[in-house]
Every structure is written in C-alpha cells, then in structure tokens.
Fold this protein.
Amino acid sequence: MKPWSQFEKHIESVNQFYRVKGFGVVEKIPNGTKTIRQGGRQIIVRDTKTGCDFIGHLDGTPIAFDCKLTANKTNFPFGSGKVVTVKPHQKAF
C-alpha cells in the first residue's frame, strides 16, 4: 500500500471514531476527477480543482483540511520557489 493510501486510511479511521463518539462528522470529498475510456481502457483525468480533501464539523465547529505528506518531519513548507506545496486555490478555500 502506498504511503498516501495508509495516511488517508488513518484519517478516515479517526473520522469514524469521531462519528461513533458523537464528536462530529468529517467526510472525504470527491477529488475532482472523472474516469473515461480511451482505447478500450479506463483512465482517470482531472476534472475540477477541489479546495480540500475532507470537510465536516467537530463539536459544532466547521472544519476543512487537505492531506499532505512531506519528507520533512519537523515542519511543513507552504511553498517557496519552484516547489508549491499548497496551491493558490487551496489557500483561497
């Protein structure tokens, strides 16, 4: 399993815990892709940009967040120079 998949599955299990305990509801939102057929096979193409990966509420407070993996364990650079970690449409959301 890819590290991204493991990370996302962990977030979904925490969200399930929140739901069961009655703390709130957080759901994964569609990622803005669609599946099309090309030459007899299915491929996934980007359809629209989404602002975040998860959205919901905890204890009545609205939340929305995007999941990012980084090799740096001590900080998260939002982007500088040629490497942009958080895209402009995500910041706006």
Q: What stands out?
A: The chain has a mean pLDDT of 80.
